[in-house]
Amino acid sequence: MSKNRLEAFSDGVLAIIITIMVLELKVPHGDQLSDLLPLWPVLLSYVLSFTFVGIYWNNHHHMLHAIQHVSGSVLLANLGLLFWLSLIPFATGWMGENHFAPVPVAFYGLLQLMAATFYWVLQQRCIATQGANSLLQQAIGNDWKGKISLLAFAVAVALSFIHTGLALAVYGGISVMWLIPDRRIERALRAARTG
Amino acid sequence: MSKNRLEAFSDGVLAIIITIMVLELKVPHGDQLSDLLPLWPVLLSYVLSFTFVGIYWNNHHHMLHAIQHVSGSVLLANLGLLFWLSLIPFATGWMGENHFAPVPVAFYGLLQLMAATFYWVLQQRCIATQGANSLLQQAIGNDWKGKISLLAFAVAVALSFIHTGLALAVYGGISVMWLIPDRRIERALRAARTG
Amino acid sequence: MSKNRLEAFSDGVLAIIITIMVLELKVPHGDQLSDLLPLWPVLLSYVLSFTFVGIYWNNHHHMLHAIQHVSGSVLLANLGLLFWLSLIPFATGWMGENHFAPVPVAFYGLLQLMAATFYWVLQQRCIATQGANSLLQQAIGNDWKGKISLLAFAVAVALSFIHTGLALAVYGGISVMWLIPDRRIERALRAARTG
Amino acid sequence: MSKNRLEAFSDGVLAIIITIMVLELKVPHGDQLSDLLPLWPVLLSYVLSFTFVGIYWNNHHHMLHAIQHVSGSVLLANLGLLFWLSLIPFATGWMGENHFAPVPVAFYGLLQLMAATFYWVLQQRCIATQGANSLLQQAIGNDWKGKISLLAFAVAVALSFIHTGLALAVYGGISVMWLIPDRRIERALRAARTG
């Protein structure tokens, strides 16, 4: 089964998720800079979520690049991932419009935790399509970034009720960790070709 | 005539349908968990429709994979299917915001019935492009899943006026039936290649 | 220059146009069938516009299939066509929410006339990329359907101020004329291959 | 690493950005031409932004056409460009609904300046993937259009506070400058093939 349409459909859904989030940035009625300032929590939430969805697209791109074909369970796991990601615009809007109140901040982290969990499931299903000596498995190694993210999101959900600033710092930290270009998969692919 | 753009356009429309449904999940004004709870019927409707659109995408993917070229009537039947599916977000919102009242639940089932009917028409037009000994025809066999779905949606529409819970159970049952990976087309394709 | 991305971008824009129109179908507050009935003009407008955008996608698909490469002026003409089509959801909503009042019905026809004009321009630019003996030119022949559509839209704009029902009948007639599968391009392509 | 999905994702995001802007054109309640007239600032803003996003898509298309593969930093720079472009619908709506008041007009120019800057960064990262004798570098030459645009947007932001008409004239001028078909990349590509 070809992976082209899985990529196309996922690209479409991710492109729409990343773009409709901006609809939460409601056009203010006044025409002064001071009318724009109250929007900063919504804008900050948007920046955070845009970054996360962008990272998901990037990693998804790399992961599917490393496999040759997709199975029925890959399609299902991918649909699950897209489901949780599709709720990100809602959580982003709720968090931003409530100026980072504890419950919305925790809810945001919980959704991210669900998305990260399904990403991990999808990754396992992708590895399974390659059998032993999976190229993808070699590429991600022990996947410390994935494991740290899951742990950090869980910790941040708890932190939300102590100090939301701490939770947001964790969210920001996770996104920065992933933004730093990661050459594991590229390197493994190149090694596989040359060796 | 190539089927690539038919796939691309359908992927685009399905990706948008599945994603704009989340816009019905309006961000609540309060910042407590109790402000989130009243959204459960809208969320549940969303989960149901997300699953159905995901299944349609999956099946559409497989069906087009099994044919070689598309005819004018395939394009037309596909447009008809997309039309009915494009009304799903509306029906989902109406059902969710009215806490699963009888008429919206029946209306939802009626739309699903129309979509399923057009899917069946599209399938027939696809089979027709392959002539006798159609690979797709062999793959779907007597298409009991498609027939059961049509019947079950019709029954659920009637059940909506007796007890909406029963109708929703039928909708859920149909979605679960399709979510269980179905290897008919994959198997037939493999058999066709090896035999 | 490859035509793949032109197709992909146009598919994307057309898929979004055809889908966001459904957002004008606002979910009614009541849960009875009687709450749904007042929506009929919006729904009818939606059906009409869905059909037109679907036809544009179909014809666009065929036209680009018949050419080999795209020029800068093709890209520009295509952008112009997409611009006018992007206003269709607005005109559809205005017409539907005002129960087919004369001015909105005329405005709708005017937009369709602009879109049809730009489609004609795009077609001419596509033919120009093929030089004399253009395959596309042979395929469309004297393009009587295109010419009739332009004329009919112009007439319908005027008719809107006499009786909107007549204008709507013309719009419906044009859409039906195009829905009937047209094998000109398919036939010309086949002839070109075999001859 | 293949550039196909980068193109597909960017096409998707650009197609959505260009299309959701039309949602700011709210359907008026009255059914007369006079009800449509107050929308002219929103419509004019829309035309301007549609043109700019169309130009970005066009240039993006050409730029990626001229390179062979993408690096991690290309993906990142592309995400940055899409981020700034995703804010264009917001700025367009704010400018249009406030009848081109100074602050929204300046804000619009500032966003365009950010987008143009990130486009320049992306272009540099694309050139870097080709090493010395970059085909893309030869194609764009000294990139006077890009440099003029950056300067002109900066000047227009300042002009907004003197006379918004001047700033808008600059925005319009930049868009016209880019709309005139530019054969630099096409010519360089052809020269590279034949020479």
From TrEMBL, chains A, B, C, D:
The keyword Ion transport applies. InterPro entries: TMEM175-like. The chain crosses the membrane at residues 9-27, 39-58, 70-91, 103-122, 150-180. The keyword rRNA processing does not apply. It is a multi-pass membrane protein. It comes from the Bacteria. It is found in: Membrane. It catalyses: K(+)(in) = K(+)(out). Keywords: Ion channel, Ion transport, Membrane, Potassium, Potassium channel, Potassium transport, Transmembrane, Transmembrane helix, Transport. PANTHER family: ENDOSOMAL/LYSOSOMAL POTASSIUM CHANNEL TMEM175, ENDOSOMAL_LYSOSOMAL PROTON CHANNEL TMEM175. Belongs to the TMEM175 family. This is TMEM175 family protein. It comes from Roseateles rivi.
